Structure to design on (338 residues):
């Protein structure tokens, strides 16, 4: 992972915007969104497949999540995701996740009809991930995820592969100190192709009216690779209460690095409140390239057992992240675990 960091993070903020497939950095899960993705060290279960895959194996038996996200309220963009994790053996877990973006209906415009032809289209952005993680001696967890990335419209498409890897370490008298590192979106460059990049034109070398079909070549683009390093500490005033304090550093290969901190309070692990703040290093209020997120996030969760003397639980999570401009991003997740 250290070698990969040296190879993939040699850039600087001047490269901002040169990558593609930035939807890989969007967070569909509400608990992670409520902490602004600062929980690298303590994320667990299905949500770990979007931040630190090592946490996938920290489940009891089975976990299923369904999430809906209203991105940048006012833009009509949405993000839908479903994920499942299943324990395999005593210490391993297998995971599968599907994520799709909804851009709404986009008007079709052409050179001859710049105001629109009356028709609409909707881009299809789709991800599928398969993952495995294992926990050793209940202290160290490691995991790896393979993800397929598809972006397309009716006549143009691109496809690529990405790999995530991560590690989590837990220690302390009550396992209350946690440390995590994750490396995400390391994969193949993507290139758009298809009939939409072809056009008909006159043959400049012909004396008669003869037309040729010309194929345009699209430039390749890299995936937005990210390195996360985080730590957290659980304060346990009693068996009923937990206060988790966390910090995180994010190294972005194609944008500014980020630091942040967050808090999460849990009552009997049934009712939870959380909040976070993330800051872009080197940014200022006057920067035209500042992040759309203002840095503030908050969330709430209710997670209750379905029956007495059983591990089956049902939960609902909600998160809000402040944005500038737009009216914020809203995440809601429904979870079932056993």
């Amino acid at each position: 992972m250290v070698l990969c960091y040296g190879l993939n993070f040699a850039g600087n903020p001047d490269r901002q915007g040169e990558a593609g497939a930035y939807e890989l950095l969007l967070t569909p899960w509400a608990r992670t969104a409520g902490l602004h993705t600062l929980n690298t060290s303590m994320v667990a279960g299905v949500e770990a497949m979007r931040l630190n895959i090592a946490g996938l194996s920290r489940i009891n038996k089975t976990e299923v999540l369904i999430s809906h996200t209203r991105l940048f309220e006012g833009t009509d963009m949405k993000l839908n995701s479903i994920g499942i994790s299943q324990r395999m053996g005593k210490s391993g877990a297998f995971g599968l996740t599907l994520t799709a973006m909804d851009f709404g209906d986009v008007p079709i415009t052409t050179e001859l009809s710049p105001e629109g032809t009356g028709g609409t289209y909707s881009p299809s952005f789709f991800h599928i991930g398969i993952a495995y993680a294992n926990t050793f001696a209940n202290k160290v967890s490691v995991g790896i995820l393979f993800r397929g990335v598809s972006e397309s419209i009716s006549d143009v498409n691109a496809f690529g592969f990405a790999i995530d890897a991560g590690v989590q370490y837990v220690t302390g008298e009550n396992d209350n100190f946690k440390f995590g590192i994750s490396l995400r979106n390391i994969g193949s460059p993507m290139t758009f192709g298809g009939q939409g990049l072809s056009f008909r034109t006159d043959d400049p070398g012909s004396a008669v009216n003869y037309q040729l079909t010309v194929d345009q070549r699209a430039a390749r683009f890299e995936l937005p690779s990210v390195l996360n390093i985080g730590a957290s500490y659980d304060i346990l005033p009693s068996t009923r209460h937990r206060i988790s304090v966390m910090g995180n550093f994010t190294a972005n290969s194609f944008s500014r690095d980020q630091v942040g901190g967050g808090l999460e309070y849990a009552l009997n692990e049934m009712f939870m409140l959380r909040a976070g703040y993330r800051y872009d290093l080197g940014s200022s209020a006057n920067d035209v390239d500042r992040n759309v997120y203002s840095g503030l996030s908050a969330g709430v969760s209710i997670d209750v057992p379905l029956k007495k003397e059983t591990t089956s639980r049902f939960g609902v999570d909600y998160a809000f992240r402040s944005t500038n401009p737009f009216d914020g991003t809203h995440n809601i997740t429904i979870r079932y675990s056993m």
